[in-house]
Amino acid sequence: MYNFADRMKNVKASDVREILKVTARPEIISFAGGLPAPELFPIEPIREASDAVLRESGRVALQYGPTEGLPRLREQIAERMLKKNAIHTDIDHIIMTAGSQQGLDYCGMLFLNPGDAVVMESPSYLGAINAFNLYQPSFLEVPTDENGMIMEELDKTLTENKNVKLIYVIPDFQNPSGRTWPLERRKQFMEIVNRHDVYVIEDNPYGELRYKGEYLPALKSMDTEGRVIYLGTFSKILAPGYRLAWICADKALIEKFALIAQAAVLQTATISMMVVSKFLDTNDLDAHVDIIRETYKHRCDVMLDAMDKYFPPEAKYTRPDGGLFTWVELPDYIDTKAMAPQALDKLVAYVPGEGFFPNGGNKHCMRLNYSCMPDERIIEGIQRLAEVIKANLK
Predict the structure, then answer these.
(1) What is the Cα–Cα distance from 382 to 310, expressed in whole angstroms?
(2) Which whole number is the average pLDDT over 31-53?
């Protein structure tokens, strides 16, 4: 009998990763994963960047490098964060990670002891829930509305619970709901967290994927006390296969993250960082992101139009201004996890909603992704899913 650590009792398979095993079948119309559209990957420019790196600096690219990451790439990230997020920073406040998921793990490792509380939106990103679960915290869920986390409820939660170590939020096109916090709510949030003296993880994988309205400043841009830990990534705007992301935080925190990285992985892959840096130097990333945004906006519109046409009135869903997801709420008596095999029988996949709630419940919800399917498959999939939903109505 294996004698595992107590923390393994909380670890369970990701609902998304398990579903993706099924959706690998080509006949499945998948609304399940949060995958970028592979036909939009800039393969030829990346090949050219890879060739140039190996030709010009091959021995450096294949060697170990600094734990914090390639200085040039961190400079480029700092420049982009100022341009896109109104965040003034520099390379001393940035460390590279193998995807934002590693950043979440590092945050849990740095801050959480068993029994510490993590505040999250309800619902929230299941990957963050799973990452923090390793460190055996309790979860405090703050209710949300169409504008994201409700600030009065957050203030109440922090007032009533003195063992909160972290607040985890996705203010832009949240996973799973697709909702975005308005500017006034962001300002209220920073006032509350400053008053309660608590650290914040601002996860922003989708912020550049805005289809409608104006870009809003990141929470980190309003951070006057060094309490916001910002997670950014190239996965949604370039290619997830490089597993390149970053943490931007107070310098003292970056030093701690570097110690964790030295113990865990030594560093992020040198060649991945050098290729992406070369790509940024020789290509227009903004033009590439524009193509992604245009494609996803179209597919989002196609899905919402199909849902308007085929879904029953009992189904309520969000209308995101960006990102990859819409969130569906069905009558309380429907269990979307129990319903998922019925959808798979019709060759349609989605992610049941319960896994997005840290403390469970809310079995009547589901997350739908629209980034990876062409128009005709989106329409056909929504039609089939609508039939399944209607069959489960009382």
Answers:
(1) 7
(2) 95
- Token match 């801050």: residue? 111
CA angle, residues 27, 366, 41, in degrees to nearest 5: 55
DSSP state of 173: S
Q: Is the peptide bond before 176 cis (omega within 30 degrees of 0)?
A: yes
- Residue 210 backbone phi and psi in degrees, to 5: -90, 130
> How far is the C-alpha of 144 from the C-alpha of 300, rounded, in Å?
22
Residues 6+ apart with CB under 8 A from 46: 239, 275, 279
d(CA 41, CA 96): 21
For the four alpha carbons of 127, 133, 137 and 140, in that order, the dihedral sign comes to positive
Q: What is the DSSP string of 85-140?
A: H-----GGGEEEESHHHHHHHHHHHHHPPTT-EEEEEES--HHHHHHHHTT--EEE
Token pair in block for residue 318: 């969000």
- pLDDT band at 394; cut points 50, 70, 90: confident
